[in-house]
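task queued by scheduler; priority normal; single chain, no ligands, no partner chains; default sampling; output format set to C-alpha cells
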Amino acid sequence: MGAAAMMNRIAESLFWIGRYTERAENHARLIDAFYHIREETSSGERLWIRIVQALGDPAVFETVYRTYGEREVLHYMILDPNHMNSIQSCVHQARSNLKAIRDRLPEELWDILNGFALWLKSNETDELLLDSPFLFLKRVKEWLGAFYGAAHHTMMRDRHWHMMESGRFLERAENTARLFDSVYHSILEDPKKTQFYLFSAVRAIGGADVFRRLHMDLFSVENVVSLLILNEKFPRSVQFGLGELEGQLRSLRNLESSDAAYDKAIRLVVKARAELSWLEGTDGGEASLHDNLVHCMTVIHGLGGLIGNAFFREEQGAGA
C-alpha cells in the first residue's frame, strides 16, 4: 500500500471513529427522549414506530419483529447486531476502525472502547436493559463520555485529532436536527403536550439547565429552536456542531499542501450555517419548519459524502 493510500485509510478510520461514537451517543439520547415521552403519554406503539422511522428501517424491522413493542424496539435500536445503526453496531464499527489504526492512537482509547464493546455483548447488558432502560442509557453515555474525555486529554492536536473531530461534529449536527424533527412530529400530533415534548428534547441533549438560564421555563418551539439549532455557544446545537466542523476542516486545510478539496467542503459548511437562519424566529405555526429541518439534515448528510469522496477517494479506488 502506498503512502497516500495509507494516509487515506488512517484518515477514513479516524473520521468514522468520530462518527460512530457520536452516533451511538445521539441514538442513546433520542431513545431516552422518546422513552420519557412514552412514560408520560398514552402514545404507546406510535412512539416506538417513530423511533424506528427516525433511526432505523421500518421495512427491515417488520421482517424480524412481529410488533412495535417496547422490548422489540429497544433490542432493535440498541443490541441488534444485524441493524447497522443499533448502538451495539455503532460501537462495534468504531472499535473495528480503531483496531485498524491502534498503533496511531493512545492506548487508553482502545482500552475504553474495547471494554465498552465487550460490556454491550455481556449478559449484564440484557438484564440491565430489561430492568432499567434509563440506567442502561445512562451507562452508554458514561462509557462514551469516558472515551471523549480520554481523547481530549491524550491526543495531539494534529491531523488525527482534526479528522476524528470532523466526523464527530458532523454526526452531532445531523443527529440534533433529527432529534428535534422527531419530537416536532409528536407536537403536531398532540399539541396539548407541546411543552412536555419540548422539555423532553432539551433534556435529552443535556440542555435543561442552560435552557432555563436563557428562557426560564418558557418552552416554546421558538425558544427550543434557538437553543438546539441556532445557539453558537451550546455544544450540542446544530450551529455549534457545524461551527466546530468548519474549524476542524480549516485546521486540516492549513496542514495540507493542496487545499482545493478542503475549500469546497468549508464553503458548503459555511453555506449550511447561513441557511440555518431560515429557522430563526420559528414559532411552530409555520408549515415550513419540518421542511427546513429536512433540508438541513440533507445538506449535512451531503457534507459527509463530499468529505468521503474528497479525502478518502484514493483508498476507495485502491480497494475497488
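post-processing summary
- Residues 156-314 form one domain.
- DSSP finds 16 helices and no strands in the chain.
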